[in-house]
Design a protein that fits this description.
Helix content: over 70%
Oligomer: single chain
Order of helices and strands: HH
Shape: rod-shaped
Number of strands: 0
Radius of gyration: 20 Å
Structural class: mainly alpha
């Protein structure tokens, strides 16, 4: 099986798009999780000082 035929089957099927959407959603979720943890860390650090 050639790589070009593999990529043709990935682009012609709709599940290829679905995998891409889920991958983007997973990356965005990880970024949001890191942002929330950083905000909570800053909030807790400010409370300890004062």
């Amino acid at each position: 099986m050639e790589l070009s035929s593999l990529f043709d089957t990935l682009t012609t099927t709709s599940w290829g798009d679905e995998i891409l959407v889920w991958a983007v959603a997973a990356v965005a979720g990880c970024i949001c999780l890191v942002a929330v943890v950083n905000v909570l860390d800053m909030f807790l650090d400010n409370n300890e000082m004062g």
